[in-house]
């Protein structure tokens, strides 16, 4: 059986007239207050969960919230983690 011919393709290069250069704005470091708020929100969520486990039945507001305390604590921690994506 005869062998097929090997075809060589030239690598694709984009036409020069269609490329428009885009300047990227360099972003500086985050403000120290942003970092403090980010860490504070994460620690507040952790503290909320710890207090809920230790003394949740003795604090009237936490007792009324019931299982919503978990949603509040985890939401605060996730909010802080989402803030880390914008941290430079």
Notes on the protein architecture:
This protein has 88 residues and is an all-alpha fold. The protein is 52% helix and 0% strand. It is built from three helices and no strands. The model has no long low-confidence stretch (mean pLDDT 88).
Element layout with pairings:
Layout: H1 32-55, H2 60-65, H3 68-83
Largest sheet: none
How much is the radius of gyration in Å? 27 Å
Strand content: under 5%
Which segments are poorly predicted (pLDDT under 50) over 5 or more consecutive residues? none
| Helix and strand pattern | HHH
Mean pLDDT: 88
Give the % helix: 40-55%
The geometry reads as elongated
For the record, give the distance between the C-alpha atoms at the N and C termini, rounded to a whole number.
63 Å
Would you report the number of β strands? Answer: 0
Q: What's the number of helices? A: 3
Going by helix content, strand content and strand pairing, the class is: mainly alpha
Question: Tags for this entry?
Answer:
88 residues, mainly alpha, 52% helix, elongated
Question: What is shown here, in short?
Answer:
52% of the residues lie in helices and 0% in strands. It has 88 residues and is mostly helical.
């Amino acid at each position: 059986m005869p062998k097929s011919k090997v075809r060589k393709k030239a690598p694709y290069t984009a036409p020069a007239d269609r490329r428009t250069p885009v300047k990227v704005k360099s972003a500086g470091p985050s403000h120290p207050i942003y970092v403090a708020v980010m860490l504070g929100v994460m620690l507040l969520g952790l503290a909320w969960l710890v207090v809920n486990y230790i003394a949740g039945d003795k604090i009237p507001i936490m007792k009324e919230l019931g299982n919503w305390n978990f949603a509040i604590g985890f939401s605060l921690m996730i909010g802080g983690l989402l803030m880390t994506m914008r941290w430079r």
